[in-house]
Amino acid sequence: MRIVLVGPPGAGKGTQAAFLAKNLSIPHISTGDLFRANISQGTELGKQAKAYMDAGNLVPDEVTIGMARDRMGQSDAANGFLLDGFPRNVGQAEALDEMLKGEGVELDAVLDLEVPEDEVVKRIAGRRVCRNNSAHVFHVVYTPPKSEGVCDECGGELYQRDDDSEETVRKRLEVYHTQTEPIIDYYRAQGLVVTISALGQVADVTARAMEALQVGKAA
Question: How far apart are CA 150 and CA 140, in angstroms?
Fold first, then answer.
């Protein structure tokens, strides 16, 4: 299957992408991984992306599209893939359509993870990270530490990252609504969008997604 995963920040796209890719035996291709891989390997596209990023500028669509094209051309993606974070806007979606058309293939589904905005803010703004080890992450509501402000693992101080503040989260949501959400209507016009609720336990959301994708595939 060839799937595009969309949803607002805090919808759990990364978590669901990993489970879905494993269940469907297809590679999970995320924009973040593409950038890290190209930059660390020193590819031409990676060098271009790094130059823009170092200058504090957004990486142009053509660079991101080039990275995605190269990754989708690798052997493990021959029978399908799950795209996470790409396409990010309608221009990238149109470019993806052209890429796939050139290969004589097409998308099977666009999985839209739906989460109320207040829940997104609650999920992200409630995160607390250990200053000693960023892998130690807690949540003031869902996974609170035993002692407030103290990491259960190492006793380090827990803090809220600047990116996780409510003000920043709401700005990220504005960007999502303006730039990325329009691709849902773009793909809906092609009959590809399958929308599910991303509320609840991770396993329940994964099961919901797998069922929806099978329905979408059959349709």
Answer: 12
